[in-house]
Amino acid sequence: LMVEKGNYRHFMQKEIFEQPVVVAQTLQSYLRPVEGQVALPDPDFDLSQIKRVTIVACGTSYYAGMVARYWIERFARVPVEIEAASEYRYREPVMEEGGLSLFISQSGETADTLAALRHARAGGQKIAVVVNVPTSSMAREADLLLPTHAGPEIGVASTKAFTCQLAVLAAFATHIARVKGQLTQQEEQDIVRHLAEAPAALNAALAFNDTIENVATAIAPARDVLYIGRGPDYPLAMEGALKLKEISYIHAEGYAAGEMKHGPIALIDDKVPIIVLAPSGPLFEKTVSNMQEMQARGGKVILISDEKGIQEAGDNCLATLTMPKVHPLIAPIVYAIPVQLLAYHVAVIKGTDVDQPRNLAKSVTVE
Ligand code: G6P
């Protein structure tokens, strides 16, 4: 299969810009907008009897899983644990009856995740798989197969697979909430409506490409960069930091905004840019107060929020990026765009090999 770059300079850039289309494509097979319902393939086990969900993945897919934990717990009221596949296998996890193990992988071949899947199967767990390659090993070994329709992803640093994973995971969380009797019809309709708005919101976020390119010039000289967020935007902070590390080789860390004061705030000076992910919503005020603690110590903040958030808190920032106003549910899908583009433009400025970063492989099939 030949995939071309078309008018784009890099595959990663092309894949970032494809997201409105591929997320829409993915959502199409999981949403019934007219009925206001999600539609999942029928598993060969009873999802309503699931007592616990264990999410296992690596890298970017792991951060998608961290976002999903918030959704599944909030909507379905089912306890969720999540772990990196390389750790999960070797700590002798307790696997009880009624456990569902959920594996997330772009390639469906990552050795650690695949081995964890087989380990969970041997432990009597039901196996659900969110995967982008439908012919992969993980896809073949699933009891419940939840494909993403991102199309082939060539850039080593994952982008469009991530947002498609989030789209599927949001639909999955909604579905399990319904079969568990935790959602009214109205609530499900609302979620479906918000999810259906994601592709347009992704387009609106992409329109800020030039602004983000400008911000990237301020980030490129930095030695360290911090990303902070709360709730479902905390995993996104880690994903943002991972993207920057992977392709620009700048040291970056994603942190839970409220944890900064327990250590990392000691790193703050005017040389460390801080990317704050703070959509307006229930956690906004808290994140902003953490942000102000850092500004008080000379920290240079780039605030990513919506118009309302930026009006309220954007004053003393080095730069602000205005995202479309979206429901907090879909914010992690939309806020993926600015963190991906920021990493991309910093890497281009630094002249690194964006699509084939040093030391990394697209699919890690060794332990
Ligand atoms: C590699 C890639 C990452 C990816 C991770 C997990 O490290 O460089 O971009 O997130 O593997 O891959 P998977 O195919 O399992 O999602």
From TrEMBL:
<feature type="domain" description="SIS">
    <location>
        <begin position="43"/>
        <end position="182"/>
    </location>
</feature>
<feature type="active site" description="For Fru-6P isomerization activity">
    <location>
        <position position="362"/>
    </location>
</feature>
<feature type="domain" description="SIS">
    <location>
        <begin position="215"/>
        <end position="357"/>
    </location>
</feature>
<dbReference type="GO" id="GO:0005829">
    <property type="term" value="C:cytosol"/>
</dbReference>
<dbReference type="GO" id="GO:0004360">
    <property type="term" value="F:glutamine-fructose-6-phosphate transaminase (isomerizing) activity"/>
</dbReference>
<keyword id="KW-0032">Aminotransferase</keyword>
<dbReference type="GO" id="GO:0006047">
    <property type="term" value="P:UDP-N-acetylglucosamine metabolic process"/>
</dbReference>
<keyword id="KW-0963">Cytoplasm</keyword>
<keyword id="KW-0315">Glutamine amidotransferase</keyword>
<dbReference type="GO" id="GO:0097367">
    <property type="term" value="F:carbohydrate derivative binding"/>
</dbReference>
<dbReference type="GO" id="GO:0046349">
    <property type="term" value="P:amino sugar biosynthetic process"/>
</dbReference>
<dbReference type="GO" id="GO:0006002">
    <property type="term" value="P:fructose 6-phosphate metabolic process"/>
</dbReference>
<keyword id="KW-0808">Transferase</keyword>
<comment type="function">
    <text>Catalyzes the first step in hexosamine metabolism, converting fructose-6P into glucosamine-6P using glutamine as a nitrogen source.</text>
</comment>
<comment type="subunit">
    <text>Homodimer.</text>
</comment>
<keyword id="KW-0677">Repeat</keyword>
<dbReference type="GO" id="GO:0006487">
    <property type="term" value="P:protein N-linked glycosylation"/>
</dbReference>
<dbReference type="GO" id="GO:0005975">
    <property type="term" value="P:carbohydrate metabolic process"/>
</dbReference>
<protein>
    <recommendedName>
        <fullName>Glutamine--fructose-6-phosphate aminotransferase [isomerizing]</fullName>
        <ecNumber>2.6.1.16</ecNumber>
    </recommendedName>
</protein>
